[in-house]
Amino acid sequence: MSDNLPKGRHVVYCDMCTEDNKQPARKTCMKCEISMCVQHLQAHLTTPVLLQTHPLTEPIASGNGGLVVTTKCPQHGKLLEYYCLDDFTCVCVSCAIEDQHRLHNMKTFSTAHKELLEKVQAEQQALLVKADGANTSLEKWEKNEREKLGRSSVRLIEAVTNLRDLALTRVQSSVSARMVSVKTSKSSLQAAKSEEDAFRFLQMYSQVHQDLENAKAVDLRKGLEPGSDRDKLLDVHLDHMLNNSSSSGNAHVGG
Q: pLDDT grade, residue 230 (50/70/90)?
């Protein structure tokens, strides 16, 4: 065995070495409940009966009452030799063949360690695959959302442009309609100014006055000022479009 100590592990010393020459332990015998260095471990490694009946584990620290980690069954006082895969606990031979674990799936420590280690590795790999799949799905979702946002932006710009054009057309039509009164009054005034006969002028004046008053009552700037009904109507259309776009996006995320 190598004399190099495992890094990052608490050093456990041999229980069989003299106090003035304590050597680091290499294994702990669960049956003898002692930790042994390379030299004192040889008997356990070379004697067939000890090799078969005395399970060895990585060094376990000892306290005043024996090993810090108990190696014996608290119920039967026998050595813990098996692992119950159903209850996830270490058991002794009496637990395995007589008590509540006798019908359970029992394994020796070495077999249980191997099988559970393989299971942990497999589950870890499955989690990695699952995480990778989630990341891929998230990236795909983000790409789709960016593309959808780009398309929505184009549609929104087109819709705003169309709404502005429509509003401009309506305002132009409204102003043009109001300009009729102004043009009419201008024509009446021009005709009155051209009339040299006093009687005819006075006969015309009533209509000229009416046309002039109508023209003066016309507000050609109506609908062009900020906050007008036209703008409010446009804002309502835009809010409706944005809310519909947001609702569609949330529905997509929820799905």
A: low
